[in-house]
Known about the structure:
By secondary structure, the chain is α+β, with helices and mostly antiparallel strands. The chain contains 6 helices and 21 strands.
Amino acid sequence: MKLNKLTIAITLIAGSSIFAAVAFNGSQMEPVKKAPESTLSSHVQPEPSNVSPESGDLPSSQSQIHTKEQGSKTEQASEKEALSKLPQVSIINVTSGEYQAEVVGHGEVKSRNELMFSAEVSGRVESVSSLFETGQVVNKGDVIARIDDTSYLQAVSLAKSNVAQAKLNLLEEQRQGEQAKSEWEHSGLSGEPDSPLVLRKPQLAQVTAALENAQLELKKARQDLEKTQVKAPFDALVVTRDIQPGSYVQPGTQVATLYSIDEVEVTVPLSESQWKNLPSLDNQQLQSTSWPVTLESSDGAHQWQGNVERVEQHLSQDTRQRSLIVVVENPLEQVDDLYPGMFVKTVISGKALDQLWQLPASALSQQGDVWVVNSQGLLAKSSAQAQFEINGLIYIDPNSLDFDLNTSTKAVVHVVKRPLSSFQVGMKVMAKVEG
Length: 435
């Protein structure tokens, strides 16, 4: 009986051990079974993306085409990304054309006549005219000052007396000469007398000359009397007044500084390169040809119209340049008065020039270079000099540039609008056209 109970206990313990072992093995085997399912699922999941649910699996040739398209797109994206990393420059498309040249110069406005007006007789200044003030305009013949004329009235009176006496002497000598001739004729002598004194010819010549001299003295005395009234020699602007009532003047004493107001002149010195842009007109041709010029004030607020009157035929010793003379008529009757002494800019009409580039002034670098972008997207430069400039635009002869773009004169050239100091020849850039 005891043996049976022991046997039963051992049997139960063994069974429990077996059951525990089976349970443990079952729990370890379950993840192993699930792992292949997860691996398979992740491996075959992308396949449906290449398969249309309607058409089924793609043929192998179409799969290759699809792969090439994906590669091309990738290359384009890479190229686009590379271009985006290149420096961007603004360019303008330029072609050669014909343009009317304009030459810009500068000069000072001066009156045609600038006179240091002086007294011609001596005496005390009795009075001055109310118009004889700086800034006033006086007309030709206006009396601007009066000098004491007492001594000059006396001189005129004396000259008149001398003339009368000379006339009397002439009449007496003429009578004596006639009497001498009559006596010679009644003397019975033939021919001419041995001496001209017989007929009083030298005496007659002497009194005749004395009369002429007396008449000239009277004329001078009257002129001196007239000059005691100081008159404006032309329509003039009074710049300075150098006498006062009570001043004593002598011949040569400065009375005033006068500027004529009928015309003003501007002398414009030009370089040799500027003269090349102007028509070849000499002074004789300018007498019958109008050559317009626009004058501007230094601040650009006012303008006047003038004409080239003449060109100088020599070089200035100071500037080594040749000048042309611009004339403006009635400067003080303009809408905006043009005053002598003003400094003005002159814009002179030139001749038509062909085969030029029109560029903004910003296209010329501080070093005097023009930069272009060639067909390969690479930068190139050349030193350049503007033929002329108008309103912020410069005009350049492309034939004078150093680089060869291998293009005709009518071809479009990509010029950099605003070159930078960091630019280098051969640098690859991405060009962007700017209006």
